[in-house]
Amino acid sequence: MKEEKRREGKSRRGAATRAMKEEKRREEKRSQGEKRDGLLMKVCCSGHGKNGSLCVLQQSIRPETITQEALPGCKGIWTVYHKNTRIHLSESSRMADEEDEYHAYLIISLEARTMVLQTANNLEEVTENVDYYVQGTTLAAGNLFGRRRVIQVFAHGARILDGAFMTQELSFKASNVESGSSSDTSIVASVSIADPYVLLRMTNGSLQLLVGDPSSCSVSLTVPSVFESSKKSISACTLYHDKGPEPWLRKTSTDAWLSSGMGEAIDGADGVTQDQGDVYCVVCYENGTLEIFDVPNFTCVFSVDKFISGRTYLVDTFMQDSVNGLHAHSKNTEEVIRPGQKENSKDVKINVVELMMHRWIGKHSRPFLFGILADGTILSYHAYVFEGSENSSKVEGSVSSQNSISLSSTNASRLRNLRFVRVPVDNYAREEMPSGTQLQRMNVYKNIGGSQGIFLTGSRPSWFMVFRERLRIHPQLCDGPIVAFTVLHNVNCNHGLIYVTALGTLKICQLPSFLSYDNYWPVQKIPLKGTPHQVAYFAEKNVYSVIVSVPVLKPLNQVLSTIADQEVGQQFDPDNLNYEGTYPIEEFEVRIVEPEKSGGPWKTRASIPMQSSENALTVRMVTLLNTTTRENETLLAVGTAYVQGEDVAARGRVLLFSIDRTADNSRTLVSEVYSKELKGAIPALASLQGHLLIASGPKIILHKWTGSELNGVAFCDYPPLHAVSLNIVKNFILLGDIHKSISFVSWKEPQLSLLAKDFSPLDCLATEFLIDGSTLSLVVSDDQKNVQIFYYAPKVSESWKGQKLLSRAEFHVGSRITKFLRLQLLPTTSERTATTPGSDKTNRFATVFGTLEGSLGCIAPLDELTFRRLQSLQKKLVTAVTHVAGLNPRSFRQFRSNGKAHRPGPDNIVDCELLSHYEMLPLEEQLEIAQQIGTTRMQIMSNLNDMILEVIFDQLKAFSNHPRRTKTAFNSQQAVSSQIMNLRSVAVIILVKSSVGSLLLLMDVYELGV
């Protein structure tokens, strides 16, 4: 008998081990998901009634690849048009619309030569048949004179071409700025094209301008007089073309009321009248001063001191009110930064390495001004018209003595009412530029899949899309660093794009048309025509199981007769009833939907209807060990409850379904394998080491699966009232009760044992585990919009000999959290270098959550040192920045108990909504705050940047040349299911803790508009 028991126990342990391995295998398959090369999707339930839908969210953009080719050593790519004026009018009329005109040539700059390809139909190399400069690298290429000419700029010169034939060639000589020797060796560093001007910045810091003549389609080289005698070195410059019948900047000038609003009309050689608008030159000097000049007169119309400081508002320094304020601020700044001379001397040398100013097409559109600093900071400003009082407009400030422009001419020409306000930019795109790098990262595009904006190349490529005068920033993570980018419009690629990766692959792509980009995350809506309640993903079959309820109008007499049958003894007076009326009843069903590979509408493969008055409460994919065959089976488990009034005893059903496909994968077969009615509702299900754990009424029961039946093997009289969630990690169970907080239970065959619980009353909404290496924490949300973190410490005296869960942190989120989901974190750079794969530092998980108010968030661990640094930063920022609606974080983020007795938990949380304001502060204030907390600005920015990169769950592929990506990250797509109702906004909330108990909460709420 003992031998038989020993064998039976060994067999059970072996079965449990196999079940754990199967569960681990399922997790790996689930992490692989739909296998779209490392793209993580978040599938959320959203909306109510006929507006109900599934929302597929992505943190990044993945273009659809049309074709790709190997292209090593690429430095830059450009596409250009060629408008042939000699063709017949009827043929040219078909290409009159600039949006529909196809590109003519693709210019590819390699390490030692240039390639030219025709793009009208297919890409065909014509390098040997054109007059382009192909013996060396190309720096820039574009169109002039209404697309009738192409200009190609290289290091020592430029060529003007009419299609494939060269019409003019120029050679550049640098202006004498500092010394004659530098003039001989200076070459072109950067190029900016605004028809009919081309601005050249030389490596010695000087400027040269190519001025075009539309009548002869030729250009001439000049050096603006204002820069000829100037000894100030220029670090970045760009041209801004204020196009349109009403150039916007004219509204901001002193004599704007005299302007008719019409641009100067120039007749081209083809007889077509071209509205040139106004052209401005934006220049930033190495000392940080930014100036805007009109072209070609080069009269300064706007200037800003210390542009690199990143102030909230940019005001012309020649205005009296601005001059006084700026001088005072300059004195304060000098006093502030003098003590920290070591770091400040480094930061003061930060200069602007790239500028871009552009106004996109749109009603009431306004220009954007972008600047990239050498430390990677991206400054983004949006222009607006400032209308001051009449008294202030009549008084003009005195001009600086070093400026030679007279006051009278200044008043007449300056853009007096022009202001810029700083716009927040996602910190992900921040990339420190190596010294001596001349790479231009910002690429303006006007129509790629109907969107317009800027594409940012580099090791962290990003899309800066402009919708309704708002910036939507979406990273692109699928291909790693991108070295070159341009647009492409031809027969085979309609309004698409071309980019070259750092690994030497040229890709021709289009943006997915099924995604909406006018959100903080790209989103795809899948209409369900009903209210979705919960969704589960089956990775092996690539299908989703969704609980959907649809209101159905039923005859009133049928509804009343059903109620009469259920409530025995209830009397109804037939004279007072209108049997001709109808009454809406919610009917539940579980739909099996499958996503389309092309991104089209998802298809419903099967539907599982519930019985009358039966509500589906939970749906999960579970792995159960068949004790008969000793094999693991993956089944769809559904828990239900009959809603029949408070006078009827509660009951529910547990349903198990198998999901299979036909031999040709054309159909999805769903068959019921088990159904059992239990006392009490079944709000939660989970698989535990091959067993099925069911929360039924005031207890949890563990069942084993025989292939045809569920047999109970253990139970626990918890929760005390009604379970709302079950979470499993190994053999540990986290149980949330609707009124009695959480319980921590363990399964050790053959029984379920209560380890500890929270004795305080708490109305739980959702629970989950938080894993940081070998440290396990318990996360719970309540109906008062709080989040609490508990931990189990039986050796601590405050835990009442292990019976009580101890509080690790608490935070008032401000939204009701209804769903948690664990996802693995990417290790930081320090962790990658200091630890080995498989160590505790790589076993770190974030907990993504959704709220009823329509937000997404995430909770993740952080090390102790970083937490202490950011906690000190938060204390400084509480008084350094203004708060929305006057909500001081020290009071607003405290735990809300709604009058109940509550003992405050440890102060182990910092608010990232507050931390995100640090980068928006002026540079001088950043240095001051960093010095006061005993650290450096670069250290703070590095910590903030690391945390942002850690929680980009789309970043699943490993790239050896990326400083943040590692092979321990996810390696393919994962479809994430969330239970989120009325999704209207996105929040990035990160609760971070270390193994010694420190936590960090990052929060930033955004509108999603789905």
Can you characterise this structure?
The chain is mainly beta and about 1000 residues long. Among the domains are: about 1-30 and about 625-715, no CATH class; about 220-395 and about 415-440, no CATH class. It contains 15 helices and 62 strands. A hairpin with a 6-residue loop joins strand 41 and strand 42. The longest helix has about 30 residues, at about 1-30. The radius of gyration is 33 Å and the shape is elongated.
Question: What are the low-pLDDT stretches, counting only 5+ consecutive residues below 50?
Answer: 23-38, 86-96, 176-183, 257-274, 325-342, 391-408, 955-1010
What is the count of β-strands?
A: 62
Radius of gyration: 33 Å
Largest sheet: 5 strands, antiparallel
Mean pLDDT: 81
Count helical runs.
Answer: 15
Secondary-structure-derived class: mainly beta
Shape, per Cα inertia axes: elongated
What would the keywords be for this entry?
mainly beta, five-stranded mixed beta sheet, single chain, 15% helix, 62 strands, disordered C terminus, five-stranded antiparallel beta sheet, 1010 residues, elongated
